[in-house]
Amino acid sequence: MTNTSDAVRALATKGREAAQVLRAASTGQKNDALAAIAQSLEANATEIVAANKLDVERGIENGLAEALIDRLTLDEDRISGIADAVRELIALPDPVGEVVMGRTLPNGLVVRNVRVPMGVVGMIYEARPNVTVDAACLALKAGNAVLLRGGSAAEESNIVLVALMREAVESVGISADSIASVDEYGREGATELMRARGYIDLLIPRGGTGLIQSVVKESVVPVIETGVGNCHVYINADADPEMALPIVINSKTHRPGVCNAAETLLLHKDYPEPGAILKALVDAGVTLHLDSEARGLAEAAGADSAYLRDVTEKDWDEEYLALHMAVGIVDSVDDAIAHIRKHSSGHTEAIVTDSVTVANKFTAGMDSAAVMVNASTRFTDGGELGLGAEIGISTQKLHARGPMGLAELTTTTWRVEGAGHVR
Amino acid sequence: MTNTSDAVRALATKGREAAQVLRAASTGQKNDALAAIAQSLEANATEIVAANKLDVERGIENGLAEALIDRLTLDEDRISGIADAVRELIALPDPVGEVVMGRTLPNGLVVRNVRVPMGVVGMIYEARPNVTVDAACLALKAGNAVLLRGGSAAEESNIVLVALMREAVESVGISADSIASVDEYGREGATELMRARGYIDLLIPRGGTGLIQSVVKESVVPVIETGVGNCHVYINADADPEMALPIVINSKTHRPGVCNAAETLLLHKDYPEPGAILKALVDAGVTLHLDSEARGLAEAAGADSAYLRDVTEKDWDEEYLALHMAVGIVDSVDDAIAHIRKHSSGHTEAIVTDSVTVANKFTAGMDSAAVMVNASTRFTDGGELGLGAEIGISTQKLHARGPMGLAELTTTTWRVEGAGHVR
């Protein structure tokens, strides 16, 4: 036991005590806490921006990439956006208390399976300070205490955000220990979160592949793996070009930096207008990594050759998160299925076809969290699927698969009522 | 990479290929496979008993405890019992294809959340050869391939059982690779199962605390923790003695060696007939580990003092799995809740009371997989709760909590149908 280990466990123990009270809190009280948080973030925007400025300046000094600096930066508008997202949680139904299943057995036992909070949720994430608020508020609405470990790049911002949220929940009679950070313990704090089995009920890593894989491998606390997306779009021979082109363009370019963006395009060899798709991708600024057949088609379509490269074996497994796309020509839907099963990260795959048989074959053959038929991969998103706010997209098979919202931050318990029943 | 690692991964890869076909198998075909297994076990009972005899003889030579020898032993009757359990699975509804949630969104996207098989399930268990058949058949009905690692004590029995099951599923056109064992690789085989992330989708340890904890800590494959039960019964002041006594006796003595047996009894100080319960327990052969007040009550009731011991701090955490019980007197339901939250393994707790307020307080205060009001702890069981056969009782909060049946051996996937939808 190190001092950090003791300190993290002490925080988790306080969190557990807070969670024990929070699990019985009414929906009204939890919503009041969310409203207080939203109000406080806006009221203290100046203080938040000042702290954030220190992080941004340090980031620039340390040579952080521009895109990361942008994600890190908070201004009044962004803070209002964060506060609005918190207010949207108020409108969502409380998952706690939902009777998932209930029946009276022949012997008269009344059996109910009821949603209850997890307890203490740990969250390890990177440089986006909005995640600090998102994660704490989703956990709170689901009746959980939360222990946060944000990236050191957002350290000053997170100190202020956590302090404001603790104050806000306390103002409505919820223990401040419901929201805590282990940031002051640095990397060791993260490591201790992963070791705190029995103290923390669930650990959610959110960030790049490296972070997620290291948490998955090192943690003895149950983990939910989120958000690595090597998503595919397959265009069948019979696909309507009027659907196929916009679906490919939207899947790739609508927001290339997120996990439900497509990274690989597979075209059936008999699809009539492959050149139009490849040229449109290049015109949208996408660098294509093509097999030889696809390259021929792109060149014949007059795509700017500066954007054409030969695909490598590694490309098929790449999550570019940028305007790059691997492109291959396949002989059949079976070949497409085989390719995707070999290379997919299990996030989202899309097919464009007008054949029920082909669509069903493709859907049945996938082993991914989501399959889209004639729709963009970008719809794998809690809000888009009508599920409400999400804490991440799970690409694992246990507990949560796909968008993880409030329900996935709860567990269930069996409640059985008898009248002196024995076996 | 060791040779064993390669061998286990090769088996898992074959299992994955088999699972890819199995996920599309009809319920009828899976049921035919189960019927063929049941029939084969009975038809080859002589061969199974002969192999089992070698295990039993070796067990006796190695000084295995009598209870373990009993669990290990198979005769024609027990084999019929195992075959009957397999036939019972045929009647259970197929979880695969169940639409868990479905809706059409305002934009016209048709969204369904559908149950699909996990893929490859690994199972690490101890000396009971019936688990070999149970686990393989539950996994099969849920559309999964299974990799088994049984205890070395049942080695010879398991070789025959696995060979018969592989033959049986093949006879109905399902790949024999759907059921395989890594027993020939000994302990290293178990270790490699735990390391085979990406090859195995779910690992279920079933056995004693030591086995389960070591799998939970070492495995990088997602694990479901099963079956450690330090279950409590709390008798409130107003409990009806006509209910309280049989519930305590049933919870403790009906089958003391299983995880839903009660291990601790907490009595409210004002419950009118504590002596009758304590004497009845002793008369049923239960050794009591009592706090000083409870000891006084037991002695006053004339309980045989040979069965009375002073409780130690360790007793409160003990899963005796035997005719022993820790007994304490508490001042209130709040004290009972505090005690149970400190010592429970999160399996099952029971209360006997006639007060709605007290029952609700107790139920809300527990953080366990099941809470019984006026019923025996023994009802936490898949069959008893009307859920069908179970592969274990989960005491963790992720994915499955309480009895794990067929549905818990599946995952879900999102299937979204559009008509060219983009964001």
Automatic annotation (TrEMBL), chains A, B:
**Any one Gene Ontology BP term:** L-proline biosynthetic process
* Highest taxon above the source species: Bacteria
Query: Reaction catalysed by this chain?
Result: L-glutamate 5-semialdehyde + phosphate + NADP(+) = L-glutamyl 5-phosphate + NADPH + H(+)
**GO terms, molecular function:** glutamate-5-semialdehyde dehydrogenase activity; NADP binding
InterPro entries tied to this protein: Ald_DH/histidinol_DH, Ald_DH_C, Ald_DH_N, Aldehyde_DH_dom, G-glutamylP_reductase_CS, Glu-5-SA_DH, GPR_dom
Annotated CDD domains: ALDH_F18-19_ProA-GPR
Provide the E.C. number(s) assigned to this enzyme.
Answer: 1.2.1.41
What keywords does the record list, in alphabetical order? Answer: Amino-acid biosynthesis, Cytoplasm, NADP, Oxidoreductase, Proline biosynthesis
Please name the pathway: Amino-acid biosynthesis; L-proline biosynthesis; L-glutamate 5-semialdehyde from L-glutamate: step 2/2
Its subcellular locations are:
Cytoplasm
Q: Which GO terms describe its cellular component?
A: cytoplasm
Q: Which Pfam families match?
A: Aldedh
Annotated ranges, domain Aldehyde dehydrogenase = 4-284
Task: Give the chief site where it resides.
Answer: cytoplasm
Q: What does this protein do?
A: Catalyzes the NADPH-dependent reduction of L-glutamate 5-phosphate into L-glutamate 5-semialdehyde and phosphate. The product spontaneously undergoes cyclization to form 1-pyrroline-5-carboxylate.
Family affiliation: Belongs to the gamma-glutamyl phosphate reductase family.
Protein name (record): Gamma-glutamyl phosphate reductase
- UniProt organism field: Flaviflexus ciconiae
Organism phylogeny = Bacteria, Bacillati, Actinomycetota, Actinomycetes, Actinomycetales
